[in-house]
Amino acid sequence: MGVKEIITAISVLLLLFPSTVKPRAVGGAQPAGSAQSAGGAQGGAQGGAPGGGGGVTLDVVAQFGAKPDEKTDLSQPLLNAWKEACASPAPSKIVIPAGTFLLSRAVLEGPCKGPVDIQVQGTIKAPPDPSHFKDDIWVMFNHIEGFTMSGGGIFDGQGALAWSKNDCHKNKKCTLFPINIRFNFLTNAYIHDITTKDSKQFNVNVLGCKNITFEHFTVTNPEHSLNTDGIHIGRSDGVTILHSEIKTGDDCVSLGDGSKNVVVNGISCGPGHGISIGSLGKFQGEEPVAGIKIANCTITNTMNGVRIKSWPASYPGTASDMHFEDITMDNVSNPIIIDQQYCPWNQCDLKNPSRIKLSNISFKNIRGTAAGKEAVKLFCSAGFPCEGVELADIDLTYTGPDGPAISQCSNVSPKLSGKQNPPICAAPAATSPGGQAGPAKASPGGKASPGGQAGPSKASPGGKASPGATA
């Protein structure tokens, strides 16, 4: 089993057995906006966060004995401060002041009696040796309502040694490395002006959250760091990522099953593998993906641009209402891609089509430069063709020796409007990113023929399903 499948399995366990401490009921909480309004999402998240004035301020150095000497473990002082803050009915603030701290591990549990704000002003470093960790947890926040974190500080995973030991592309029993920050089952959370860097694996994992916003959030990992997704989302409703910069060795943002009402707006992505929905269909009972809007982003020097991917021979499922608008591509290998034969390392059955039904998808005002000739690839399932696909005002150029740019399609008949460079679905179908593509037709205003309704999905992993280091 690859490292990302292990993450998925752990996510299943968290969903089935979330905690012996049950979170308090949340009355009337609304998702952080919708795919229609990033501003509404931001406002909703901030509305549930601790406000200014009053409350308790707890300094981990001055009051709990933490030392910014890169030797003394911050774990116990931080935990003690958390317990006091979490027990306070009044809004509480934990301050991690300037300086560099060593943190072996932190699991900060709710529910709390009042809102909690963590001000990270310093740099928090993980032990560099991955053998220090017994699982994939470094910093984890669980079952908290009304949480904020800010301060301009840094979570440094010190992952270089782990990257050199990552052999998950060839070893199904590979070593499990820790994720920098896990946000599990948070409601009304706002994380801003925080940096995560050099994670040993994913930088951020969002699971089971409702109304959570990231703003002015920075991810910095080198391009060669394997499996270091910037922000991965699963089984969460109302996730907003605004005005952030993500440089990593895998997807800048990845959305797993059960991702609903997600807004990604104003992101700078690259290097990395772009912004991806999926991969979907690897596990039985995955939840639907719906209400996704990716807009006003710049993607630079990445392996992919905006991508939807599902496995062949998959379990049934659906993904709908996914919209990509106003995106600039700069030297991107696959700027626009739907890949329903996603098959990294040829570890799947290409003879049977994906049973993930994709519908109501739009790509609008996407422009810039491609690093390869195939600028647009729409490879939909032969068993469940894509429906309601629209492309408008596409202008992607390629200047390589085998140019100009082309598009390739199968099992989709998109609606076209505005500029179409390259001409959409004009080239003969060829081998898809995961296998052999079927016939393609392009008819403005048309739709793909119905492939039947995907079956119901329940109880999903919520994690990422691609094994090892993948595209």
From TrEMBL:
It is an enzyme of class 3 (hydrolase). Residues 40-52 have a biased composition (Gly residues). Coiled coil: none annotated. Residues 26-52, 419-471 are annotated as: Disordered. It catalyses: (1,4-alpha-D-galacturonosyl)n+m + H2O = (1,4-alpha-D-galacturonosyl)n + (1,4-alpha-D-galacturonosyl)m. GO terms for biological process: carbohydrate metabolic process; cell wall organization. Residues 27-39, 432-447 have a biased composition (Low complexity). May function in the depolymerization of the pectin in its walls during pollen tube elongation, or in that of the pistil during pollination. This is Polygalacturonase.
